[in-house]
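User: Let's play a game. I give you a shape written as tokens, and you guess the letters that built it. Ready? Here's round one.
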């Protein structure tokens, strides 16, 4: 048990710093809110000067809750996940205070591992649909186009056979990662599949999501890796220096993104490319170091159960189960954004495209039964991009939320033509219409636009 506690302490120490670095990358990617980014920078710096990493980790997650809770659930998927992690961490803190015991590191580590496993399950499962498998509409084609446009200045360099097989290969890889991360003996195989995917995603600027998942990968390094660090001081020094280089690289990333945004004023595509390359260099450096240690590591002299799911209790299942239920929302309520990023998933009755689930039989409450089609938005009163909904079907509850949000745009009047339950309606002022009362469901559920014709477009 002493070895288990020591190992978990090292895992927590490294993961918490890597995770705080990932959040810093997220909040400084475009410096949209400089004051928020500076708070996360200060917390990350505190963690690096040997200030107690758990204290800084708690502060960091408290900051996530303060910054993001009011916008839930209308956040990027990885930001919603960061919010869930923050709530999970602080629930563990509350439980330890109530029980007057030290924070259970096994509960923290196992709970986070369980969440990651569930995430990879849904990342693959949501993609098993006709829209994703159709190369013409698949999000893999959308992303290949983005890489060519952002990284290679529009050059057509990705071969057709890569485009044709990408949807099937990606689904298989996501589900294999899920399966391999369940069993400690196959963790390394899961990591070998996951790292290249996230490196490719990072090339065109999606470093925020990738950095969070790469931090989580530290939770899945196998028993003999950690045993080798305790038994071989040279290997431990090698790994700690590698992680130190990664943390310094995160600070370089932050400085570069700030200069690119405020001083150099680089074009967004150039920023994305440069930051993606820099981030991948950092990940490659750590990954190569880990591979070297795994190759040099000998069979552990400690019990195999010292790492893995050791110490798992039923109480550790609460948050993984919560993530599982949240990920199932599209099949329970409709076209939710719960881990459906880049999946082409549609669950509306007449357009549903999942190949394994008929949502007509799984929905508990069908919010997509009542749809509003936005036929036309007056160009003179065209709203901000968040209301760019012309030509789409919107669940009425989501349309009411949009109408309610329009009441905040006091400097403009939004007018449009809609079709609601087959009835043509002209709205002269959305903020003053009958739809402007925000429904209670919008505080917990958010829905995607539904394409009127054809396969679902790729959406984040």
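Assistant: Ready! My guess for every position:
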């Amino acid at each position: 048990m002493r070895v288990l506690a020591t190992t978990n302490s090292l895992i927590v120490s490294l993961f918490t710093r890597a995770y705080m670095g990932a959040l810093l990358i997220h909040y400084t990617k475009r410096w949209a809110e400089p004051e928020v980014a500076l708070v996360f920078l200060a917390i990350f710096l505190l963690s690096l000067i040997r200030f107690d990493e758990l204290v800084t980790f708690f502060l960091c997650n408290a900051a996530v809750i303060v910054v993001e809770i009011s916008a839930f659930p209308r956040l990027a998927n990885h930001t919603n996940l960061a919010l869930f992690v923050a709530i999970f961490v602080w629930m563990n803190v509350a439980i330890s205070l109530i029980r007057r015991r030290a924070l259970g590191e096994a509960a923290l580590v196992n709970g986070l591992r369980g969440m990651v496993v569930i995430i990879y399950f849904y990342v693959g499962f949501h993609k098993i649909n006709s829209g994703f498998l159709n190369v013409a509409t698949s999000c893999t084609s959308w992303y290949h186009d983005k890489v060519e446009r952002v990284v290679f200045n529009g050059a057509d360099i990705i071969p057709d056979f890569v485009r044709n097989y990408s949807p099937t290969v990606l689904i298989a890889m996501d589900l294999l990662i899920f399966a391999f991360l369940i069993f400690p003996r196959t963790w390394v195989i899961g990591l070998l599949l996951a790292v290249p995917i996230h490196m490719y995603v990072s090339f065109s600027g999606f470093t925020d999501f990738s950095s969070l998942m790469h931090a989580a990968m530290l939770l899945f390094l196998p028993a003999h890796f950690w045993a080798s660090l305790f038994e071989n001081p040279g290997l431990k020094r090698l790994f700690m220096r590698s992680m130190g280089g990664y943390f310094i690289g995160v600070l370089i990333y932050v400085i570069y993104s700030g200069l690119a945004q405020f001083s150099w004023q680089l074009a967004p595509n150039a920023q994305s490319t440069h930051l993606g390359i820099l981030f991948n260099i950092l990940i490659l450096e750590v990954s190569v170091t880990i591979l070297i240690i795994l190759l040099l590591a000998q069979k552990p002299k400690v019990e195999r159960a010292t790492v893995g799911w050791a110490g798992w209790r039923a109480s550790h299942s609460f948050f993984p189960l919560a993530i599982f239920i949240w990920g199932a929302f599209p099949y329970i309520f409709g076209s939710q954004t719960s881990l459906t990023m880049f999946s082409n998933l549609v669950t509306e009755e007449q357009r549903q495209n999942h190949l394994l689930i008929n949502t007509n039989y799984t929905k508990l409450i069908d919010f997509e039964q009542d749809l509003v089609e936005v036929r036309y938005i007056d160009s003179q009163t065209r709203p901000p991009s968040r209301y760019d909904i012309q030509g789409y079907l919107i669940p009425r509850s989501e349309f009411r939320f949009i109408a309610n949000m329009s009441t905040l745009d006091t400097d403009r009047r939004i007018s449009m033509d809609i079709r609601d339950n087959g009835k043509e309606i002209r709205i002269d002022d959305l903020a003053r219409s009958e739809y402007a009362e925000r429904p209670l469901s919008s505080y917990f559920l958010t829905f995607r636009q539904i394409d009127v014709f054809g396969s679902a477009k790729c959406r984040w």
